[in-house]
Amino acid sequence: MTSIFLRDCDSYQLKSDSDPQDYKRQEAIWELFTSECVYFLDQLMVLKEVFLAMLTNLQMRDCLPDVDSWRLFANLNELCLVRPYIYAFRESICHCLQKYCLNYSAALFYLGSLKNREDFGSYVKWCERNQECRRLQLRDLLVAPLQRLTRYPLLLKNIGKRSRTEEEESALQSVVEQVDTSICDLEGKVKWLDNYQKVKQLGDSLVWLPVWERDKRAFVPENLKHLLKSVTLENLISHQSLLHKGKLVLTENGKLHNVYLFLFDEFLLITKIKRNKKSPHRSPQNQELDQLLKEGCTFTVLDQPVSLDRLQLKNIDQLNATASGLPQSFIIMHQNRYQQCIAAFILQAPSEAVKVQ
C-alpha cells in the first residue's frame, strides 16, 4: 500500500542542486513524511482494516462474541484519525498516543490469554495471511504506535538541526519537548518504554568514529569525506532493547584498556570509556553505568557493532590464561558472511562469576 502511495508522490523531488544545508533539511522532512506513511498505511491501517474490521465482522455474525476489541486495540480508531504536523503537533495527538500506550501491556496479556482458543487462533492466522500484513504478526503491529511515539523526537530534531531561522528551530524544539514529556509521563507505566529512556541516555554518550579514524588504512581525501554518510548511533540503537551491560578489560597491543560492553537484541557494542576531565578521578572499573553517565563519560565504539549471528565466543582455559597472564579471559570473534574472522577481542573479567554471566 505504501509503495503505491509513494510512487504517486514521485513528483516531489529533492533538489540536489540547492544549498547543501537546505538539501539536508529537505531530506530530513522527507524522512519524516515517508516514515509516517509507512507507519500509517502499513501498520495502523492494517491493524484497523484487517484485524479490527474482521473481528467486528465476525462478531456481527455471532462469532467470537466474548472477545473484547477494546482490550486488544484500545483507541485504534481514534489513532487513525489524528496525524502530526511538523509545526502543529497538537497536544491531543500525544494524549491519543498515551491512551493507546497505557493499554499496550494489558493488550499483550489479554492476547496471551486468548492464544490457546482454536476459534481465536484461526481468526488471527487468517488475518496474518493477508498480503497487507507483509508477514508481520499481530504482536508486531500492536507495538507500532509505541515505537512511532519514541521515534518522533529524533525525526523532529533532525529537521530542527537544519532550520532556516532561529524561530523555526525554537518551534521545533518546543514540539520535541512536548513529545519527550509525553514519553516521560509513561515511564514506569508501560514496561516496553522503561528501556527507552535508558537507551536514549546511552545514545547521547556513544561516540561513533568515521571509517578513516577507525581504520588507518582507509584513506579518504578531505573533499570526499562528506560522501560517506555516517550512521548515527541514535538511529542504530533507538529501537533496540538493552539486554545486558558490563565492564571488562581489553588486551590491545600489549596494553590493558577498560571497556564497557552493551548487548542489544541484534548486536554487541564494545566501547572504550573516556572520562570527563572535570569529573573526580575514580577507576571506571569500580563504577556503575549510571554513575559514569552522570559524570559525563563517553563510550567510543571500537571497530563496528558485532552482529549476534556473526559472533563466536572462545573460552581461554585456565592453563593458557595463566600462561599468558590473563586470568578469567575469553575471546570474542567477529566473522563475516564467509566465516572469516575479521576482528578478535581478548577480554578479561574481574572474576570467574562475572565471566560466566
Structure commentary:
GO terms for molecular function: guanyl-nucleotide exchange factor activity. This is Pleckstrin homology domain containing, family G (with RhoGef domain) member 7. Residues 24-189 form the DH domain. The protein is built from 15 helices and 9 strands. It has helices spanning 2-8, 20-60, 69-73, 76-81, 91-114, 118-128, 138-142, 144-160, 166-186, 191-205, 211-214, 233-237, 289-294, 318-323, 352-356, and strands at residues 206-207, 242-252, 255-264, 267-274, 298-301, 306-307, 311-315, 329-335, 341-348. Strands 1, 2, 3, 4, 5, 6, 7, 8 and 9 form a 9-stranded mixed beta sheet that branches. Helix 2 runs antiparallel to helix 8 (144-160), helix 5 (91-114) runs parallel beside helix 9 (166-186) and helix 8 (144-160) runs antiparallel to helix 9 (166-186). The longest helix is centred in the first third of the chain and has 41 residues, at 20-60. It is globular and about 75 Å long. The protein starts with a helix and ends with a helix. The mean pLDDT is 85.
